[in-house]
Write the structure tokens for this entry.
Amino acid sequence: MTSQNQSDERSPLSKVERHNVLDIPLPEGLAKITSLVRSVLKVPIAAVSLIDRGCRWFTSIQGSDSIGSSSLASFGFPFRGERPLVIFDALEDERFSTHALVAGAPHIRSYAGAPLQTSEGHNLGTLCVMDTAPRNFSETELSILSSFASLVVHELKLLQIAEQDHLTGALSRRAFFNQIEKETERFRRSDLPSALALMDLDHFKSINDRFGHPAGDAVLTAVASTCAEQLRENDVIGRLGGEEFGILLSGTDEAGGRAAIEKIRRSIEEQVIPLGGGIRVTASFGLAVLGAEDCSGTDWIDKADKALYSAKRRGRNCCVSALHRKQPQDEGLYTLLHQHALTAAGPGVSSLSGSQRNRSHQEARQMAASECLKKLSRYRSHPYGRSQTKIYLSAARL
């Protein structure tokens, strides 16, 4: 893998847009382009590489079924010019002569890569071809390769348009939900935590009514930008509809998620949008950490949505965390109360009580235990925010 210069790290493809290209299924057009390049230039291998966080990742590889993309990703170097770069013979190049793909199968000997440059001059990666024999690519061949590279950039731009909210630059609803499902699958494989926050701008309708819809659009754009500035490279934000957004914090537990969302909430609260004498807005958040009980991304979203509803009921401009539906710390108390109820109602109660007073005492314990059991069952099923302190105290008195 190779490093890229600092200017590329600040390109429009950073954060949201960069994830938009790399983390969703790429269009079929890329496969068609690489297949056509391979046929026209008569090379055994053609591929598209994309730059992400300073590393190169290969996609749409044609003619290298026996080569893993990770191995191929280490074969190459950064491109800082507009012209294709060429390796005539990799065995004679000290940078690659000992590379596994040169010394072993498929025995790559020559390479040509055309940069994928946007109209703004940002480098997104390369369209490259490789041969198993030394080769001098002609100017005509390199020109053809560059033309195909322009088609790749066009495909990527169309992909960004389709998967990006046109107003705020955040991921579209579909693209964000794709990210949710991918994160859920990743959790099943690695068991690493991730936090999801749903965000709703408070009383947004009043902004449209008072200042007009153009001002409302400006507020949405400003808020999305403020959120994006607070996120890490692996985090994403999506616009789910209207004034509602989603924020995915990959590899983050509940404590880290709350800290990140509180930082975002304060930034939004302190922001002044320079319209109509200055517009201030606040936002409500529902936070949910992905857990084993979440069978799908839909379950995860539903948990965060319920927490968001609770934040609104609490007065807005706050963050409420959803609790896991199963709480292991309560299992002992739940079992204890259940045993109390069964013991008090069992056939041996009368023989153990011995008197009317003891029987009354057991009946009182049965009623108290049963009541606590009902309350605990009801509160445990509640997905967020309700205190169980009184239940614990009642159980302690049994």
